[in-house]
Amino acid sequence: MKTRRLGKTGYDVSEIGLGCWQLGGDFGPVGDDTATAILDAAEAAGINFWDTADVYGGGLSESRIGAHAKPGIRIATKVGRDSSLFPNAYSFEGIRESLLGSARRLGVQTLDLAQLHCVPTEVLREGAIFGWMDQLRAEGVVRHWGASVETIEEGLICLDQPGCATLQIIFNLFRQDAATTLLPKAAERDVGIIVRLPLASGLLSGKYDKTTRFEASDHRNYNRDGAAFSVGETFSGIPFERGVELVQELRGLAPEALPMSQFALRWILDHPQVSTVIAGVSKPEQIADNVAASEHKSLFPALMTQLGEWYEREVKPEIRGGV
């Protein structure tokens, strides 16, 4: 597995990481045996960066990782979406208590990386929360802190904070704006970029059609129009049926014999400012498919330009929830 430097953390992380939202059961039930098999497969493949959050399954994802992780695995968690804090009850003590709970579940004394978890824009603008994270780092609760954001505006606010070490963003073939507005500034500030939703909640895997149905407990069912949280977090804000159509258009642009999922991941990896792509899986056998994208040769520059033009023309007007 190839590695990249995660910004000013100095961590060398696998360029394909593991997104652990699924381990909390928020994409449908995942049994203990399956969760263990996923983590085993990730470790065997050399994936040494695992991303979770305190609210994934109400702490279940963190607990499963804590029971499994071994030395050499960098664990990133998140704070700020628990109902004790979100949307307007943020405090230093509240964040500290949440992070200490994450540390207990993960079985560590100090968290490798704690990320503000889609904190409301107005809280980021006010700015006190960044000072609290600096203080928690000074106390040894966290080694480094970053932020997981929903929009470019939020990302730019965070990049202005000297203590911000990483930025987690939605970035994929259906959400390309960060390539010109955010990534260059992150590189200037030595902030590591973590990409989430690389397959737009699975749409870019090419496995769905307009008749596909998801379980009631799956956010791709209950949040496809933003009923529970930001619509941009589900299918990258693209209406599902339109997304299926757009994937069909992409098939005509992808290199021959390159699976859609690997095409989508390779496009992200061809942006050198990206440190790691956290691809979630619900089955251990999906790990190998994700890792193969790291081994594939880069896409031709002319194709990258064509994909950018296609995005501006066909995709960007369809996005809901902001970019």
From TrEMBL:
Q: Indicate the segments forming the NADP-dependent oxidoreductase domain, all copies.
A: 15-296
InterPro entries for this protein: AKR2_Oxidoreductase, NAD(P)_OxRdtase_dom_sf, NADP_OxRdtase_dom
Q: Which residues form a coiled coil?
A: none
Domain of life assignment = Bacteria
EC number per UniProt:
1.1.1.-
Q: Which Gene3D superfamilies match?
A: NADP-dependent oxidoreductase domain (3.20.20.100)
Identification of the protein by name: General stress protein 69
Species classification:
Bacteria, Pseudomonadati, Pseudomonadota, Alphaproteobacteria, Hyphomicrobiales
